[in-house]
Automatic annotation (TrEMBL):
Cellular component per GO, a single term: extracellular region
Pfam families found in the cross-reference section: Glyco_hydro_18 (PF00704)
InterPro entries given in the database record: Chitinase_II/V-like_cat (IPR011583), Chitinase_insertion_sf (IPR029070), GH (IPR017853), Glyco_hydro18_cat (IPR001223), Glycosyl_Hydrlase_18 (IPR050314)
The protein's name: Glyco_18 domain-containing protein
GO molecular function: chitin binding; chitinase activity
GO BP terms: carbohydrate metabolic process; chitin catabolic process
Annotated SMART domains: Glyco_18
């Protein structure tokens, strides 16, 4: 039934949203597609190695290079890996400079750095933000770093205020830090974004959401990692909806309720999933909430419990025994192979999340991170003219289709002028064979 419905329902994108090949270009519809790049992806082996030359500048409005760190002595921004970030005496990858060079190819592209991350911890931020003198040093170092490296802005990723060695005052101090950054960055018209979660137990003690929203250009919501192998049972990484509050819809709604401006919110969509090793294969065919141990080590990301979409689709297409299934309760796929269980996002689940974001007229989509999309097109259908970045293309196609449907709805006489319709994502999947995966 899905196939017959899709065949007669090809979506039509306005020509000004497409390039000469008829492919949707990020930003052509005034929505934001912010793409994180993990700096360490350059060290991955074989087909997993991602370099700046792999970036498709047509698919992102903003590129965010993660992560830089904080020098605890000087309270200034520093490289956490100079070999990855710079070239010194002819040695090193020089990714920061290569990122900025992409603007020669795409002048409207915005290139940012992200400061922080999980490995950088919380205490460095907490200590710096608690002192006026230290905040001034940090803010000035950010300003000068952006200017010196010709970058468009900075993203702050404090994981998480009041947690992991933080203090109760972190909530107030974080909001103050962002205010001061905003004031200084305005002098050069630089961009300020923040990477946040929408989980209530982190939001309430750690974020003055309304004040933060007033200071930043975008709130990049980590609407994933809701479940993982740390729970010792199989679960969904990024459910759109669920029986509890650990899902995308609740996170976004909660941040808005706490004062986030919808036109600044970017819904986070992961290009990675979580792997689990089930203790026993269930006899009843119900693979969710099954007792499990730590996930297995994937071949390119090399992190137990973390698996890139490029690894998922490669395993599904090259290894026997995998079964790919769809969970209606969360609107996400999962795959199993004996005791292996993987939760991830594919084109179908992404299109549903994009439709949700566009229904709320949010700013757009953030994705972590493009280096684990199928950026080489290894899983594409033979003959596909646009094989690379199927998930990122699904994001852009989904935005264009949702906006086109909304525009059509507004101009139809028998519809309410401001009503919004939820787009059925299945026709869109048929639209762009570039984003189409074989069904296993």
């Amino acid at each position: 039934p899905y196939l017959s419905a899709a065949i007669i329902s090809f979506p039509t994108f306005p020509l000004n949203h497409c390039n000469q090949e008829g492919l949707v270009v990020a930003g052509s519809n005034k929505k934001t597609v912010l793409c994180y790049i993990s700096s360490w992806a350059v060290y991955r082996r074989s087909q997993g190695q991602f370099t700046i030359s792999d970036v498709d500048v047509n698919l992102c409005t903003h590129l965010v290079y993660a992560f830089l760190g904080i020098n605890e002595t000087t309270n200034t921004v520093v490289s956490r890996d100079s070999w990855a970030d710079y070239v010194t005496n002819g040695r090193g990858f020089g990714q920061l400079k290569d990122l900025v060079k992409l603007k020669d190819e795409a002048p409207n592209l915005k290139v940012l750095i992200s400061v922080g991350g999980w490995s950088e911890g919380s205490e460095k931020f907490s200590n710096m933000a608690a002192s006026t003198v230290k905040r001034i040093a940090f803010v000035e170092s950010v300003f000068q770093f952006l200017r010196r490296n010709q970058l468009d802005g900075v993203d702050i990723c404090w994981m998480f205020p009041t947690d992991r060695g933080g203090i109760a005052e972190d909530k107030r101090n974080f909001a103050t830090l962002l205010k001061e950054l905003r004031t200084r960055l305005n002098e050069d018209n630089r961009i300020l974004t923040v990477l946040m979660t929408g989980k209530r137990y982190i939001v309430d003690p750690g974020y003055d959401v309304r004040t933060i929203s007033q200071s930043v250009d975008y709130i990049n919501v980590m609407s994933y990692d809701f479940n993982g192998p740390w729970e010792r049972k199989t679960g969904v990484n990024a459910p759109l909806i669920s029986e509890n509050e650990f899902n995308v819809e609740f996170s976004i709604d909660y941040l808005i309720k706490k004062g986030a401006t919808p036109s600044k919110i970017l819904v986070g969509i992961p290009t990675f999933g979580h792997s689990f090793t089930m203790k026993n294969v269930p006899d009843n065919g119900n693979y969710l909430k099954v007792p499990s141990d730590n996930g297995y080590l994937s071949q390119w990301t090399r992190e137990k419990g973390i698996i890139g979409y490029n690894e998922v689709c490669y395993e599904l297409s090259t290894t026997s025994g995998w079964k790919e299934m769809w969970d209606d309760a969360s609107s996400t796929p999962y795959a199993v192979n004996h005791k292996k269980f993987v939760s991830y996002d594919n084109q179908r689940s992404i299109l549903e999340k994009v439709s949700f974001a566009m229904d709320l007229d949010l700013a757009g989509i953030m994705t972590w991170s493009i280096d684990t999309d199928d950026f080489r097109g290894d899983c594409a259908v033979p003959g596909d003219p646009t094989p690379a970045f199927p998930l990122l293309r699904a994001i852009n196609n989904g935005i264009a289709e949702a906006l086109a449907a909304r525009s059509k709805n507004k101009t139809t006489p028998d519809k309410k002028p401001n009503s919004v319709i939820r787009v059925d994502p299945l026709p869109i999947i048929v639209l762009a064979l570039a984003a189409l995966m074989p069904v296993f």
